[in-house]
Write a structure and sequence with these properties.
Blueprint: H1 5-11, H2 15-22, H3 31-46, H4 62-73, H5 79-97
Helix pairs in contact: 2-5, 3-4, 3-5
Keywords: Lipid-binding
Domain ACB: 6-99
Pfam family, one: ACBP
């Protein structure tokens, strides 16, 4: 269930809202931007990447390897700092790419919020 536009206006941008907004971008971010967002999201939710005996680095899938390496690169960053960095990156991407407005079937009015 999408977070209401009014809630965003009231509380401002936070990690959960930023994660939702990244699914609404009008254009696809570059691969480097996607990897940065991925690593920050994983660090914010799970903390440091587990050791290789628990979370083996993929061998065959190049994209999966890049995602693994991106998360490994920010090992040691606190979960709170990762959330803050994710929100900052999301705000930059919203400005850069714009976002699609989601309309509910039951409400023809659309509330928009500029961050």
């Amino acid at each position: 269930m999408p977070i209401s536009e009014l809630e965003k206006k009231w509380w401002g941008m936070n990690f959960n809202i930023a994660a939702e907004e990244m699914r609404r971008l009008k254009e696809t971010p570059t691969e480097e931007e996607q990897l940065a967002l991925y690593s920050l999201y994983k660090q914010a939710h799970h903390g440091d990447i587990p050791s290789e005996d628990l979370y083996i680095r993929p061998n065959s899938d190049t994209w999966a390897q890049r995602k693994y390496d991106a998360w490994l690169a920010i090992k040691g960053k606190s979960q709170e700092r990762a959330k803050e960095d994710y929100v900052q990156a999301a705000q930059e991407m919203i400005k850069k790419y714009g976002r699609n407005i989601v309309r509910s079937q039951w409400n023809s009015q659309v509330w928009t919020v500029d961050y």
